[in-house]
Specification:
four-stranded antiparallel sheet; 384 residues; eight-stranded mixed sheet; binds adenosine-5'-diphosphate; 11 helices; binds magnesium ion; 41% helix
Length: 384
């Protein structure tokens, strides 16, 4: 969706040109899954798919919201009445950001927002973070708040955790706010330190495919909470602040101390080995051995499937089919129980791989997956 088009629709809806237009992307996580609520490492990169928002300030305490992608007209909310848990519609994401900014002491007097997004919703590609970050960046710029990107990401996370009520980590919002074109973002979720890691697959004749299974299994919310609680229990039993504090070479000893806590032991093993996989991925990319990250991605999938147990038949089918048809590596990405997988492959293999995936899904009587190439793209920015 072009910036001009979004601005024009804004003008039709609200009767005046917007003060500006901003964009914030969705993301895909290359490696580092279910580590971000364990103070661990993640490595997402931004997609070319983005939420674009046209925004103007108001001075009468009203927030008016409209999405080109949703049924229904403009939704009007009073800033004073914004409260966590009161909104179960899409509007909770941008309204939650306004609430979080005001709660943090920033004086906002109202806004008109029209947005449109090309990030597939519910596919594990963070359409929610794209909505939050585009709103936060627009208000930051219009009100001259001058907040650093990491701080905007934190406020967006607070909007999602508290206002929307989804207990997610800091990765999605940071990726949308901070990623750079041609790079993956190494993020230490403990201190929020970041490093941009050059990640230009096309230059090496490689591609990373995103395969959106278009399924979302209904129990995902409760299962996420259960994994999270299990990780916290593991940290408590091991006497550390977070599982991040268990070093990879101390894993066996830690597992030995968990006695008959079988489920906790599996969760701990995933988190500790996954942090190590992020570090291995960075080392391989730095040494120019990009193809060698394939098996690390696949190992990550096996760990999520067998130890963390958040995969599902559709995601396993993507990974198994891709590997059987020459992919260098593949893994589910995002929280699991549906959503998307990523596949690292030689460029020349893309057509035959895509065909094999389609055939495998048809044979299994699953809905056809959406396959697209993920090009590491820019983080949030002002367009107009
Ligand atoms: P994900 O972030 O993985 O896409 P979430 O469940 O976290 O999945 O967020 C999806 C929700 O975000 C949707 O149900 C909807 O409320 C909101 N959303 C996403 N895209 C849009 C859009 N274009 N317009 C309005 N709301 C959207
Ligand atoms: Mg989300």
């Amino acid at each position: 969706m072009g910036a001009q088009q979004v601005a024009e629709r804004f003008t039709e809806l609200y009767g005046a040109r917007p003060e500006g237009v901003w964009a914030a992307p969705g993301r895909v996580n290359l490696i580092g899954e279910h580590t971000d609520y364990n103070d661990g490492f993640v490595m997402p990169f931004a997609l070319p798919h983005q939420a674009v928002a046209a925004v103007s300030r108001r001075d009468d305490g009203l927030l008016r919201l409209h999405s080109a992608d949703m049924e229904g007209g403009v939704v009007e909310l009073r800033l004073d009445a914004l409260a966590p848990g009161t909104d179960t519609a899409w509007t909770a994401y941008p309204a939650g950001v306004v609430w979080a900014l005001r709660e943090a002491g920033h004086e906002l007097t109202g806004a008109d927002v029209h947005l449109s997004s090309t990030v597939p919703a519910g596919a594990g590609l963070s359409s929610s973070a794209a909505l939050e970050v585009v709103t936060a960046l627009a208000l930051n710029d219009l009100h001259g708040l001058d907040l650093p990107r990491w701080r905007l990401a934190r406020l967006c996370q607070r909007a999602e955790n508290v206002y929307v009520g989804a207990p997610t980590g800091i990765m999605d919002q940071t990726a949308s706010a901070c990623c750079e074109q041609g790079h993956a973002l190494f993020l230490d979720t403990r201190d929020l330190s970041q490093r941009q890691i050059p990640f230009d697959l096309a230059a090496e004749g490689l591609r990373l495919l995103v395969v959106d299974t278009q399924v979302k299994h209904a129990h995902s919310g409760g299962e996420y909470g259960r994994r999270r609680a299990g990780c916290e229990k593991g940290a408590a039993l091991l006497g550390v602040d977070a599982l991040r504090d268990i070093p990879y070479d101390g894993l066996d000893a830690a597992l030995g101390r968990l006695g008959d806590e079988e489920e906790v032991r599996r969760l701990v093993r995933h988190v500790v080995t996954e942090n190590h996989r992020v570090e291995r991925t960075i080392a391989l990319l730095r040494s120019g051995d990009t193809r060698a990250i394939g098996p690390v991605l696949t190992e990550g999938h096996v760990s999520l499937r067998d130890d963390f147990r958040v995969s599902c038949p559709e995601l396993d089918l993507v990974v198994d089919t891709a590997l059987a048809h020459g992919a260098l590596g593949a893994r589910m990405t995002g929280g699991g129980f549906g959503g998307s997988a990523v596949v690292l492959t030689e460029s020349a293999e893309v057509p035959s791989l895509t065909k094999a995936l389609e055939e495998a899904f048809t044979a299994a009587e699953f809905t056809s997956p959406r396959v697209f190439e993920a090009v590491p793209s820019a983080g949030a920015s002002r367009l107009l």
